[in-house]
Amino acid sequence: MLKRFLLTFHLVLIGCTLAALAVYGAEKRGRVRWVADGDTIVLTGGERVRYAGINAPEVAHDSEPGEPYGDEARAFNNKLVLGRWLNLELAGEPLDRYGRLLAYVFLEDGTFVNGELVQQGYAHLTRRQSKVPYWERLLNLQRKALKEKKGIWSLPVAKPEKYYLGNKRSWVFHRPDCQFGLNTAGHNRVFLKNRYEALYQGFSPGHRCKP
To answer: Which residue, 53, 45, 47, is CA-closest to 104?
Structure first.
């Protein structure tokens, strides 16, 4: 009985895995039913999609207040994609920890949605994988937005530091007294003279100390 149960469980698991691979292939096409925020959408089939390689400011949810430019980022994303057909190029890790598809998203006319949000200053880069498709393209767009002080880059720096600590393994930077920065291994630690330099090089701000 136990062997039969284990065999059945194994076959079901294989079936689920094959079904998942069929759904989460290298490319996918879908239409946008709802825009959750500046970097997350829901397709008509119910799949939640998180734009890969970027991070937009949070909108207010539950009891948590929104971040500056969170509503503007969602409005821009809404105007760009709501009700439209998209071509999705799935990231190396197709699902994030919340079960959302991670994807580089394109309109039917070829417009790179992830890049548009970065270019207009509604999102910053986040490098969570060792190899990120479109990294150079996104980095150049962020540099342009930084220089032109668009969107989130028009805001004054909160509590600027004399320097910042970057982690070249995670591509995150921290305040000099942040424990996460101080715990970074010496061979991965990078000293950055200011916040602009960190962002210009492609480091993303840490969530805890919010540099």
So the answer is: 53
Which residues in the chain show pLDDT less than 70? Answer: 1-25, 129-131
* Residue linked to tokens 């390689």: 53
Class of domain 24-155: mainly beta
* CATH no. for 157-211: 3.40.10.10
29 catalytic? Reply is: no
Region(s) of the chain under CATH 3.40.10.10: 157-211
State the catalytic residue, choosing from 50, 74, 175, 195: 50
What is the rounded CA–CA span in Å between residue 76 and residue 122?
A: 8
Catalytic residue of the set 47, 72, 74, 100 = 100
List 58, 72, 116, 161, catalytic entry: 58
Is residue 50 part of the annotated active site? The answer reads yes
The yes-or-no answer on residue 4 being catalytic is: no
